[in-house]
């Protein structure tokens, strides 16, 4: 591969064209392994950012793509429908909380978030009470597009630079209580106040259920989410759950909302929806929300991307959900969680480590100081693992099929990269 051309012309996520970090050329991927061009095999600790839950090159997903590509790889979704999309929506409705009954398909997580925010705005517009604001919490992350950036914590995120150009929304303090700690009602005080003071203005609350991902890999107490649902009901504000990272089993439940026993009015999913094969996302809404949206002046929901309901992506999504619906993931994720609970506390003893956290197939090591990205990345590759830290966070979210031996290679590599030599 022409790495020099890559360095000179190809822009990677969050990288500089002036001072690009090294990129490792991957030739193929199979199961939990990435194979580099020079033949080295790396155990993937990232699942391509939460996505490849069943591992790479999965026979059933490959077959679904092959079968579909010979039939129809794409067709517009306006005035036309097809079996892969209908079947996918049927499955999504079956596995998501029961009140969610309408599915809007899109092509990336950020767009699913845009769609959810537009749905909430249109909902209140249709009711003749336009509400322009959203309430969310600190340390959140909802994507890289404009509306998604506007509900991402401006003081603590990669989007701070855009602060002055984005619509201003309302941010409440996030929960300080970890998942396994004792709940303390004072954690919800700021949220309660912000909701109460702005309720006539608020179209919706948007939140990542239980795990705040790119904004800090924080795993918070289910009661925080439960209280948010109660407060939204009390004050008649919609609740949007962004399950793009947490959905499809990652936290040990099919959807993270289940940890709090709640159901949102609108839910965004993406990433693992196709087992990480294709770019596909969905926004689900209750019948009440969907019908209200469509009862307004516009008489329909005003959104329709070109690649909406892409049949190839839907076919692979169906195969991926089929695997999940067979149910083995529960045992796989549970044993990953069990092993992380045994291995991470040892890393937590190191002087440079501020905290360790885990839930389901997610493990997090938070440091006092940011890592040197190029150095630590090289040390991981030399150790035969693929882990991509950011800032002060080293985290893993491996494919569910990882074996205990492979998982301990990941934690051993983290331990060695942090231990003074
Ligand atoms: N919401 C959450 C919670 C996410 O983690 C992400 C992706 N990191 C997004 C939205 C945006 O998804 P995408 O990158 O597919 O646009």
Automatic annotation (TrEMBL):
User: Gene of origin?
Assistant: bioA
Organism in which the protein naturally occurs: Photobacterium frigidiphilum
Site, Participates in the substrate recognition with KAPA and in a stacking interaction with the adenine ring of SAM: residue positions? 14
Q: Which family does it belong to?
A: Belongs to the class-III pyridoxal-phosphate-dependent aminotransferase family. BioA subfamily.
Q: Which key words are in the record?
A: Aminotransferase, Biotin biosynthesis, Cytoplasm, Pyridoxal phosphate, S-adenosyl-L-methionine, Transferase
Q: Which cofactor does it need?
A: pyridoxal 5'-phosphate
Where it sits in the cell: the answer is: Cytoplasm
Query: Can you list the GO cellular component terms from the UniProt entry?
Result: cytoplasm
Gene Ontology BP terms: biotin biosynthetic process
Protein role:
Catalyzes the transfer of the alpha-amino group from S-adenosyl-L-methionine (SAM) to 7-keto-8-aminopelargonic acid (KAPA) to form 7,8-diaminopelargonic acid (DAPA). It is the only aminotransferase known to utilize SAM as an amino donor.
Q: Which EC main class describes this enzyme?
A: transferase
Q: What is the lineage of its organism?
A: Bacteria, Pseudomonadati, Pseudomonadota, Gammaproteobacteria, Vibrionales
Assembly and partners? Homodimer.
Q: InterPro entries, alphabetically?
A: Aminotrans_3 (IPR005814), Aminotrans_3_PPA_site (IPR049704), BioA (IPR005815), PyrdxlP-dep_Trfase (IPR015424), PyrdxlP-dep_Trfase_major (IPR015421), PyrdxlP-dep_Trfase_small (IPR015422)
Report whether Transferase shows up as a keyword of the record: yes
Specify which residues bind pyridoxal 5'-phosphate according to the UniProt entry for this protein.
109-110, 242, 305-306
Protein name per UniProt = Adenosylmethionine-8-amino-7-oxononanoate aminotransferase
Locate the residues binding substrate: 49, 141, 271, 304, 388
């Amino acid at each position: 591969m022409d790495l020099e051309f890559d360095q000179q012309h190809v822009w990677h996520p969050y990288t500089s064209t002036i001072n690009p970090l090294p990129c490792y050329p991957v030739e193929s991927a199979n199961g939990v392994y990435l194979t580099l061009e020079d033949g080295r095999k790396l155990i993937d600790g990232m699942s391509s950012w939460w996505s490849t839950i069943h591992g790479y090159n999965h026979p059933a997903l490959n077959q679904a793509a092959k079968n579909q590509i010979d039939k129809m790889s794409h067709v517009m979704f306006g005035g036309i429908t097809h079996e892969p999309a209908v079947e996918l929506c049927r499955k999504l409705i079956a596995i998501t909380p029961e009140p969610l009954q309408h599915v809007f398909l899109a092509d990336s997580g950020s767009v699913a978030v845009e769609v959810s925010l537009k749905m909430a705005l249109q909902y209140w517009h249709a009711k003749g009470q336009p509400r322009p604001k959203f309430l969310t919490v600190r340390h959140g992350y909802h994507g890289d597009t404009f509306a998604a950036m506007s509900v991402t914590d401006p003081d603590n995120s990669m989007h701070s630079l855009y602060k002055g150009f984005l619509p201003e929304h309302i941010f409440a303090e996030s929960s300080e209580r970890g998942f396994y700690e004792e709940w303390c009602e004072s954690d919800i005080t700021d949220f309660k106040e912000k909701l109460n003071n702005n309720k006539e203005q608020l179209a919706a609350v948007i939140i990542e259920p239980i795990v705040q991902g790119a904004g800090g890999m924080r795993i918070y107490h289910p009661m925080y989410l439960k209280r948010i649902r109660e407060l939204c009901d009390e004050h008649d504000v919609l609740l949007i759950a962004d399950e793009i990272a947490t959905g499809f089993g990652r936290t040990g439940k099919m959807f993270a909302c289940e940890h709090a026993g709640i159901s949102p009015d609108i839910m965004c999913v993406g990433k693992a929806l196709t087992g990480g094969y294709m770019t596909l996302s969905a926004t689900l809404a209750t019948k009440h929300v969907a019908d209200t949206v469509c009862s307004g002046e516009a008489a329909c929901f005003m959104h329709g991307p070109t690649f909406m309901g892409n049949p190839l992506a839907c076919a692979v999504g169906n195969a991926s959900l089929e695997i999940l619906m067979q149910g083995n993931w529960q045992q796989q994720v549970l044993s990953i969680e069990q092993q992380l609970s045994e291995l991470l506390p040892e890393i937590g003893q190191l002087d440079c480590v501020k905290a360790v956290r885990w839930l389901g197939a997610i493990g997090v090591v938070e440091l006092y100081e940011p890592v040197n990205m190029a150095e630590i990345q090289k040390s991981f590759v030399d150790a035969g693992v693929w882990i991509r830290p950011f800032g002060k966070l080293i985290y893993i979210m491996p494919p569910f099929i990882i074996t205990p031996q492979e998982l301990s290679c990941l934690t051993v590599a983290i331990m060695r990269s942090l231990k003074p030599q």
